Amino acid sequence: MNSSIPTGFFTQSHENLKERIYTRIRQDLQRIEAEIDRNLSSSVPFISIVGRHIMGSGGKRLRPLLMILSARLCGYQGNHDAALAIVFEFLHASSLLHDDVVDNAEFRRNQPAANTLWGNPGVVLVGDFLYSKSILMTVGYNDIRILQALSEATTKMAEGEVLQLIHADNLEIDEQEYLEVITRKTAVLISAACQIGAIFGGGKPDQERALGAYGFNLGIAFQLIDDTLDYTGDVNELGKPVGNDIQQGKATLPLIYALRNGNAAEKKKLKELFSADQIPSERFHEIRERVTRSGGIAYARELASSYVQSAKEALRIFPLHPTKEILLDLADYVICRRT
Amino acid sequence: MNSSIPTGFFTQSHENLKERIYTRIRQDLQRIEAEIDRNLSSSVPFISIVGRHIMGSGGKRLRPLLMILSARLCGYQGNHDAALAIVFEFLHASSLLHDDVVDNAEFRRNQPAANTLWGNPGVVLVGDFLYSKSILMTVGYNDIRILQALSEATTKMAEGEVLQLIHADNLEIDEQEYLEVITRKTAVLISAACQIGAIFGGGKPDQERALGAYGFNLGIAFQLIDDTLDYTGDVNELGKPVGNDIQQGKATLPLIYALRNGNAAEKKKLKELFSADQIPSERFHEIRERVTRSGGIAYARELASSYVQSAKEALRIFPLHPTKEILLDLADYVICRRT
Questions:
Q1: Low-confidence ranges of chain A (pLDDT < 70)
Q2: Any alpha helices (H) in A74-204, and if so which ranges?
Q3: Where are the strands (E) in chain A, listed by range?
Q4: Is the domain defined by B8-222+318-336 classed in CATH 3.30.590.10?
Q5: What pLDDT, on a 0 to 100 scale, did the predictor assign at position A236?
Q6: Helix/strand/coil for B103
Q7: N or C: less crowded end of chain B, CB within 10 Å?
């Protein structure tokens, strides 16, 4: 898979795969939505308003869905899964709210970012509430192993957010450091959703490990693709300006690759282009052009494919099962998704 | 106790009581410091630096101390208490960091506020880390009742922070709404520290309830006095500008009382004085003068005394015990403290 394949190919396979996955998860998504809605009520109406804004606007519900599917793959058949599953959406939303404050973001998912509507103080504090609430909801499940996995994940995530901030504007970050950042900021929570699904579903230790590994590899691939979409995506589909990371001077793998593999003149030029505080759009187009030509986007996509492969292999201990099929399809979808 | 008693009286009793308490808790404070230090290390050095700044600069360690004393009063004699006790200092520090961002604070405890040194993004994220870490540390104690009490408290706290933000600049807030805010922002965590101390120490249900009530009442009194110190305190002792709340237009009980009890002209004048975005120091002196004359500070202190009384009464189910004496002294100290 490289950047010269016509995009029409991806569009079609993307739409087919999306539809095939969607018909099998529709009911789960509905249960997730209902549960989110039910738990967003608060005696403080402002919390519900900001919460509904960040959680009601087109999220993929990937994390709660993975938790539900992981539990089911381990044999769970009840309907108490949704209330635990949404913990992962609450944690994700809390982290998005704080990210928007940290990045001073203007848009998210085709909507004004929460901080532009309600200011940083309110957004920081509602983020804190969603986080606390998610721990409280988890405690209700009365399982210390779940709490252990969850709090290990959130602590690593928080460290990862700080790491990412420290590396902001750092064009010297190498591939390994970048992978450490995306592991913590994305893979760790997705992995925890799958692992905790396995624990909740009564999975054996090897099933718990396998689903944790599936989620970890899927999470890395998901973030790698997210970072390429910042170069290649469509603003209307993405719901945020393409080139957001680039304009903030964030170095992700496509650029890291271009800097590593370009000759001295090319490196110098790219660093110059990145050096401004605000990168104007003509400069963004030139950066995108140079990074694409370097093969950086294709490289990141190939690396994502190899992580998807590892995610799928992690599931080989499970026999054929409709839920396993969905998880395998979801892994493929991560690569060909356009939003 | 009213505002016409010479301050020298308080100074002396304050110093004596402080010394008497301190000699009996010195070793516990040392254990708390050592444990905080040990747990502030992180693979991300920036986290340790900001963490040490917010936790190393003159905090009273009231919350961890109350947890340790509560456990001891219920019969605990080991030394695994300190590592659980510091959870309450981590949570408190996390909340202080986010408060400083929310309030755009310039100073805390005679030091530049963290946000002025490292910027809002880093401070928000280190706050998130300290919070996650405190949950992780608690999970290590493997007791779901402790986690239940703790996560209920932090969720109420987070709601309280939002409530306080909504009421910022609201001069119409009444005493009941104000008490609701300080319950959530201060009393709930102090109460949880005492209650969890009781659970950890193997206390019976009525002991757990009694210590929770002690902490709750102590917490309300503590915040009431904090709010009067914004009017009466000494800038060098407090470590932050006197009149901080006033200058931010925050209405606390002394002002609420003055507005409630003043005649129409006095109310109008006070609201005018409060109406500016930035309140200059001559205006601050006039507000302080008017609020003091209204009896608002004496009223808040009297209310604090009645909460301290309730705190002490809550301990009556415990027989005489050196630890009980310390808790009773701490309750008295809350009233006469000057910082």
A1: 1-12, 57-58, 109-110, 234-242, 276-278, 339
A2: 81-103, 114-139, 144-167, 175-182, 188-200
A3: 107-108, 111-112
A4: no
A5: 61
A6: helix
A7: N
Write out the residues of chain A at the interface with chain B, using a CB-CB cutoff of 8 A.
Answer: 42-44, 46-47, 98, 101-103, 120-122, 124-126, 128-129, 131-133, 135-136, 139, 142, 144, 147-148, 151-152, 154-155, 157-159, 161-163, 165-166
Question: What are the chain B neighbours of A122 within 8 Å (beta carbons)?
Answer: 162, 165
Structure tokens, A114: 């929460």
Which residues of chain B register pLDDT less than 50?
1-10
| pLDDT attached to residue B218 | 98
Tell me what the pLDDT averaged over chain B comes to.
89
Give me the pLDDT at residue B8, please: 43
C-beta atoms of A121 and B101 within 8 A: yes
Chain B residues contacting A via beta carbons under 8 Å: 42-44, 46-47, 98, 101-103, 120-122, 124-126, 128-129, 131-133, 135-136, 139, 142, 144, 147-148, 151-152, 154-155, 157-159, 161-163, 165-166
What pLDDT shows up at residue A275?
Answer: 76
CB B329 within 8 A of CB B20: yes
| Chain A residue with the nearest C-alpha to that of B43 | A159
Distance from CA of A46 to the nearest CA of B (A): 8
Residue of chain B minimizing CA distance to A141:
B144
Instruction: List the single best residue of A44, A95, A120 to mutate versus B (max B Cβ within 10 A).
Output: A44
How many Å apart are CA A216 and CA A223, to the nearest integer?
11
Domain residue spans of chain B: 8-222+318-336
CA distance A319 to A268: 53
**What are the start-end ranges of the E strands in chain B?**
107-108, 111-112
pLDDT confidence of residue A273 = 85
Q: What is the pLDDT of residues B232-285, one digit of tens each?
A: 876 666 555 667 777 777 889 999 999 999 999 999 998 888 876 667 777 888
Distance separating the N- and C-terminal Cα atoms of chain B:
18
Residues of chain A found within 8 Å of residue B163, distances taken between Cβ atoms: 44
**Do residues B44 and A166 touch, judged by C-beta distance below 8 A?**
yes
Residues of chain A with pLDDT > 70: what percent? 91
